[in-house]
Specification:
The complex is a heterotrimer.
Chain A lengths: L4 H17 L3 H17 L3 H28 L7 H19 L7 H7 L4 H30 L8 H5 L2 H25 L2 H9 L10 H22 L1
Chain B lengths: L12 H22 L8 H10 L1 H18 L8 H16 L6 H27 L7 H10 L4 H29 L3 H4 L4 H6 L5
Helix pairs in contact in B: 1-2, 1-3, 2-3, 2-4, 2-7, 3-4, 4-5, 5-7, 6-7
Chain C lengths: L17 E5 L6 H10 L5 E4 L14 H8 L3 H13 L15 H14 L4 E5 L7 H14 L3 E5 L12 E5 L14 H4 L8 E8 L9 E8 L4 E5 L6 H9 L6 E6 L2 E3 L9 E4 L12 H6 L8 H7 L15 H14 L4 E5 L7 H16 L3 E5 L3 H7 L2 E6 L2 E2 L3
Parallel strand pairs in C: 1-4, 1-5, 2-3, 3-4, 8-13, 8-14, 11-12, 12-13
Antiparallel strand pairs in C: 6-7, 6-9, 9-10, 14-15
Helix pairs in contact in C: 2-4, 3-4, 3-5, 11-12
The chains are: A mainly alpha, B mainly alpha, C alpha/beta.
């Protein structure tokens, strides 16, 4: 929905600063509800679930600690509701900013952000190398089992396998990176990339949704500043 | 393979950093597949720092945690500063030959844990209210519940858990680097490797 | 196989006939191909046996790879046309690094076409392509692209060469080491072989509920070589994974000498599996410790290295060996593990005809001593030499031995 990385960055930063400034549960919840609504409408269900899974254990422990410490000592820690809402809001804001860079058109997004040359290569290959290494890791574990080098699937015997799995993983990855480094140099791939990118860059006109994505957080932050400081 | 008569060109660090990132995250995956009770999230950062220097190490660490925030758990990115500390510490110690022998390596590994414990404490206290959701936060929770101040509790719990983890990671990183064949090592900056104790 | 003459030639240029280098391992094919690619001042494209380094590692789809690194719009169109002619346009939208071996070779050629290279040198990377498909791929390449093609293919004599390719024979070098197997090395240390029976076994991968493998009844006798046959996706690999215990069975039972076993709990109890990619299966820091860790005695080290043609000093890092030797080492390591059954997935990749013959001879010798062998291979010559029993799989269903 919101396809301009600049818009997401600006609105994301606005939300984070608002979250850090305010102590009011009402304003904190407003931000959380707004972000959840956006992630729901945009269909990022997996992202939302990750956020919930991350905040749940923290919430449980935080509330437990709060009630236990209120019995045992006179020192009152911050009320957990406030801390939790702020934390949850900050996590959600990060997801809101990050989700757009993990799709098929991520190249265009990074280019729009102004990344060029080596930085662009690092940004893109950071996301594309991971699935490959994970597949390789699984293949190496399988090979180890298949060769009869692991006695059983008990936790102890699998735990001892870790170094043996990491070594071929690293060696293989480095070998590939060296071969690739040569290829990049020989074929002048950086220059090719640069020359193929220039037409991709497009002029962006602000979409109504994007206007809302800027104005709404702006209004919210103004309100917070007004209530807290004036 | 490079031709024998031309000196090998050093590897482009732009292609090494993604490996470090993937290693940071993939080792997490391996740990997860094997269901191990440890948390190895900085081996890639340490390895890249030792092979290609501090700048590459910092980029690796920070990007790993940003990516982990998007893919695994959105609380990771706020600990990117800890990764910067890991890269800086590793580089500084390695530069002075601190990792060349086993015992100093163990000692500096433990010390790295102290440094990361200190570096992540402010984030845990001021952003997470003392509870980051990791295994160490259970200790912190206990300490807070028994009446310790939040900052004190987080520092203590961090110092209890981090040194062992970071010491293991330093040792593992060196064990892995020692296993890299010579023809691969030849493609990295020779003076850096010699200084870091990876070449004799 | 008939030549697909209906294909119109886009770049008819008789001067740019393809060159095929024929010769044994270590006869200098790779060096020649590399030199050809480098002689053209940055306009050459070299594809190594492990094809993945031909890709940038940067793009998440083949299409993105072509868009980012093509010479021009026209060369990108040529690359798409090449895939279209082969009926493989669907791989455009998949990650080039996770394609199967055969598909990867085709994808690498497409990237080469897109890059506008003048010379494309492909070093032994067509082996995972179906035999019938190989000359079609070469012809399609030549009709879609003006670049000169030079390649090496260990199995080129198994299929008809297109008219547009001239073959150049290279003499073996002095360093050539073909595997000469003294099978007694392995014979006297193998554990008892046993009859494996599978009854009503069904298995599937976690992600889908459809059973990818169904074996109503299969009995495997020791002292026999079995070849798993069937098209891609027929379940050959799945059957092997179930036998070794990498995949949990959903139903049915696996019996060894009449006793039911749980192969998932205790993987590789009856059979050791040698995977296609040797890099996944080499773990140690030296060739020596690689073999010793599999349980072979140190007095046998020399002979097993000689037997499998692992011509390298003992202290070499396995990762520093060329691909051919890494493959041989992984086979040697598998046979150093004492099991009654051995499962070999594409054991002849990268090997020349002499080594293939030696390997076939040693496998036959092993079966005489009572070992059971299961082989997956695309090489017709190899399976003919083995005189293997065929087990045919179709659509995941196994017809029995």
């Amino acid at each position: 929905m919101i396809s301009s990385p600049q818009v997401r960055l600006i609105s994301g930063l606005l939300i984070v600063s608002g979250l850090l400034l305010t102590r009011q549960v009402l304003m904190l919840s407003a931000a959380c509800v707004g972000l959840i609504a956006y992630l729901l409408i945009a269909g990022h269900f997996a992202t939302l679930r990750r956020n919930l899974l991350a905040i749940a254990p923290i919430a449980v422990i935080l509330f437990a600690v709060h009630y236990l410490s209120s019995y045992t000592s006179t020192i009152q820690s911050n009320p957990p509701t406030q801390t939790l809402l702020r934390l949850f809001g900050i996590m959600l804001t990060f997801s809101y900013m990050a989700t757009m860079f993990l799709g098929y058109d991520s190249l265009d997004r990074f280019v729009q952000l102004g990344l060029r040359g080596e930085h662009l290569v690092i940004a893109i290959s950071a996301t594309s190398t991971l699935p490959l290494m994970q597949t390789t890791a699984v293949q190496i574990i399988d090979a180890r089992f298949a060769a009869g080098l692991v006695r059983s699937r008990s936790i102890f015997s699998t735990a001892t396998q870790l170094p043996y799995i990491l070594r071929p993983l690293l060696t293989q990855a480095l070998r590939l990176a060296i071969a690739r480094s040569d290829t990049w140099h020989q074929r002048g791939m950086m220059q090719r990339l640069e020359s193929n990118l220039s037409p991709v860059r497009m002029e962006h006109r602000l979409h109504p949704v994007e206007l809302v994505a800027i104005l709404l957080p702006l209004a919210w932050v103004t309100l917070i500043v007004g209530r807290e400081f004036l | 393979m490079s031709m024998p008569d031309t000196p090998p060109r050093p590897i482009n660090s732009a292609l090494l950093i993604p490996i470090g990132i993937a290693l940071n995250l993939a080792i997490g995956t391996v740990v997860h597949i094997l269901k191990l009770p440890i948390f190895l999230d900085a081996i890639g950062t340490i390895i890249v720092t030792l092979l290609a220097g501090v700048r590459a190490g910092i980029i690796t660490g920070v990007l790993s945690f940003v990516l982990a925030g998007a893919l695994v758990n959105p609380s990771y990115p706020w600990f990117s500063g800890t990764q910067v500390v890991i890269a800086l510490f590793t580089h500084t110690v390695a530069k002075r030959g601190g990792y060349r022998r086993l015992f100093p390596r163990i000692a500096f590994g433990l010390l790295l844990g102290v440094a990361t414990g200190l570096a992540s404490a402010p984030v845990i206290v001021y952003l997470f209210g003392g509870i980051s959701g990791s295994g160490a936060s259970l200790i912190a929770a206990y300490l807070i519940a028994t009446g310790k101040k939040v900052l004190e509790a987080v520092l203590l719990s961090g110092l209890a858990a981090e040194p062992l983890d970071k010491m293991l990671q330093t040792l593992l990183a060196y064990a892995l680097l020692r296993g890299i064949p010579a023809d691969i090592l030849a493609r990295f900056d020779r003076t850096l490797l010699e200084r870091n104790g990876l070449l004799k | 196989m008939s030549k697909p003459s209906s294909l119109p030639s886009l770049h008819a240029d008789p001067a740019k006939a393809g060159i095929l280098y024929v010769g044994p391992n270590f006869s200098g094919r790779s060096a020649r191909l590399l030199a050809k690619a480098q002689a053209t001042n940055g306009r050459g494209f070299f594809i190594a046996p492990d094809i993945t380094s031909a890709f940038s590692g940067f793009a998440s789809t083949l299409n993105a790879e072509l868009e980012s690194f093509s010479q021009s719009h026209n060369t990108k169109e040529d690359a798409t046309a090449f895939l279209d002619r082969l009926g493989m346009k669907s791989i455009l939208f998949r990650n080039p690094l996770t394609l199967s071996g055969g598909e990867q070779a085709v994808a690498a050629l497409a990237v080469a076409i897109g890059s506008g290279a003048e010379v494309v040198a492909a070093d032994c990377c067509f082996e995972q392509l179906d035999v019938n498909l190989r000359s079609i791929v070469v012809q399609c390449f030549q009709s879609c692209c003006a670049a000169a093609l030079a390649y090496a293919d260990n199995r080129a004599d198994e299929h008809l060469l297109p008219d547009s390719v001239e073959s150049t024979e290279l003499p073996p070098s002095n360093e050539t080491v073909a595997a000469t197997l003294d099978s007694s090395v392995i014979l006297d240390r193998n554990s008892e072989s046993s009859i494996i029976e599978m009854r009503n076994v069904r298995a599937s991968y976690r992600s889908n509920d459809v059973f990818t493998l169904s074996v109503p009844f299969l009995s495997l006798q020791p002292g026999t070589v079995y070849q798993l046959a069937g098209p891609n996706g027929a379940g050959k690999t799945t059957l092997c994974r179930v036998l070794v215990g990498l995949l949990r069975t959903a139903d049915g039972s696996i019996l060894v000498d009449g006793k039911e076993i749980n192969s998932w709990r205790h993987p590789s109890r009856v059979a050791a599996l040698c995977f296609q990619n040797p890099d996944h299966q080499l773990f140690a820091n030296t060739v020596e410790s690689e073999l010793l860790s599999r349980g072979i005695g140190s007095h046998k080290l020399e002979s097993i290295m000689r037997a499998f043609g692992v011509a390298s000093p003992r202290q070499t890092h396995p990762g520093s060996l060329p691909f051919v030797l890494r493959k041989r080492l992984s086979l040697a390591a598998t046979f150093s593990t004492s099991r009654g059954w051995y499962i070999l997935d594409e054991p002849t990749i990268g090997q020349d005809s002499d080594s293939i013959a030696a390997l076939a001879a040693s496998i036959r010798a092993l079966t005489v001593s009572g070992c059971g062998i299961i082989v997956i291979s695309h090489s017709k010559r190899f399976t003919r030499m083995l005189d293997a029993h065929q087990i045919v799989l179709r659509g995941g269903v196994c017809d029995g031995g």
